[in-house]
Prior knowledge:
By secondary structure, the protein is of the alpha/beta class. The chain folds into two domains: 2-212 and 481-508, no CATH class; 222-471, 4-Layer Sandwich (Nitrilase/N-carbamoyl-D-aminoacid amidohydrolase), CATH 3.60.110.10. The protein is 45% helix and 13% strand. A six-stranded mixed β-sheet has the order 5-4-3-2-1-11. Strands 6-7-8-9-10 form a five-stranded mixed β-sheet, covered by helices on one side. A hairpin with a 4-residue loop joins strand 8 and strand 9 (440-443). Helix 2 (36-50) packs parallel to helix 7 and helix 7 (166-183) packs across helix 8 (190-207).
Amino acid sequence: xxxxxxxxxxxxxxxxxxxxxxxxxxxxxxxxxxxxxxxxxxxxxxxxxxxxxxxxxxxxxxxxxxxxxxxxxxxxxxxxxxxxxxxxxxxxxxxxxxxxxxxxxxxxxxxxxxxxxxxxxxxxxxxxxxxxxxxxxxxxxxxxxxxxxxxxxxxxxxxxxxxxxxxxxxxxxxxxxxxxxxxxxxxxxxxxxxxxxxxxxxxxxxxxxxxxxxxxxxxxxxxxxxxxxxxxxxxxxxxxxxxxxxxxxxxxxxxxxxxxxxxxxxxxxxxxxxxxxxxxxxxxxxxxxxxxxxxxxxxxxxxxxxxxxxxxxxxxxxxxxxxxxxxxxxxxxxxxxxxxxxxxxxxxxxxxxxxxxxxxxxxxxxxxxxxxxxxxxxxxxxxxxxxxxxxxxxxxxxxxxxxxxxxxxxxxxxxxxxxxxxxxxxxxxxxxxxxxxxxxxxxxxxxxxxxxxxxxxxxxxxxxxxxxxxxxxxxxxxxxxxxxxxxxxxxxxxxxxxxxxxxxxxxxx
Length: 509
């Protein structure tokens, strides 16, 4: 009998793991969002049918997360394969730890829901409670420990009619509606029926394409921007002997006629310190003959701090603006693996004393540069929707430079592109994305890719940005991040509070 129960438990855990794998098919590179409404209802069925103890809830939620995050982030092993002889032994440890930490959010959501519903007899209330706590766990994942809002379910729905919702209340509230609707698809109550009605209403409105193609007036003048994608392999990127060759690639792609109004190179496009090498900047400017934005390192000799930065230089090679990256990649750009960069020695002897990157002073707009006001974002910073919301209102476009060569050729670059597209849609603003090896693109204010350079191609692409046009704010940009985060959390906590009070009253009676 005990053996039979153990076998059944293992089968249930395996079932949740397989459902997690299936849910990962909603994300890139598979892009099958409607799998959500196959997987989440099945997860609810398994919960009601087989989960009876808090321990089973905990392990089932963990298995569910392992399947989803394990497949979604399979590309996370690629950075360790850049130099396999040195780093390949880290792959099983780093990958397992990363996926397990993300899965803990789902494990705790399942476990906490079992606590609130331990004496509840109505299945629909159990499922509703699970969906609420699960939505709270996903919201916490977006904020706790610096936050990691990558692969939330709402990103999967970007190319569907319901994506119009993010212009109203943003991706996080949209994510909660997807979760609650999915888990409760076959368990109806007045509250859950409301969520289903909202989802259906948004879908019908989106089918009519209302709001998706509006918000920008036609421009009379345009700014021509050249996106330069050098496609330099990560294993070769930081080798000193390749520096001149890589610079020639960038310059050759940049100086083709006709000359653009602005040229953009990707993150860490140059390997020397621009502030300490004005003669090199002058040489570059003489050859490209256009203002240039590029990513590079910035080192403060006084404080011994290293920054990942964006530089804007004019036609004479003089630095006009600098932005230091604010949101750093955990375990890669800052502590707790502060010695990681020093161990890899990718910055050569000059930077051996530097334990990772330092954070900048915050997101900021680039103004008075001779170009329409824009918000620069470096790589990972495109994830932070609410933080961007706080500063983007005056901007006429967003610039996102990145080095996705770390991500390999799988889902990573495509997922990262989708994140950038969501920022354009929710703020009703065009976005230019320039990546080292792809995917570089001009993204319109409705989140659609207008033009792009494919992954692993060495090319340049000229795109146009309208000048002197007034951007219409979306409702999401008007309400601000307080509604999207704090008010959102309060709304999710209200049902939990209600059930807790009701349960205590029943016990007292």
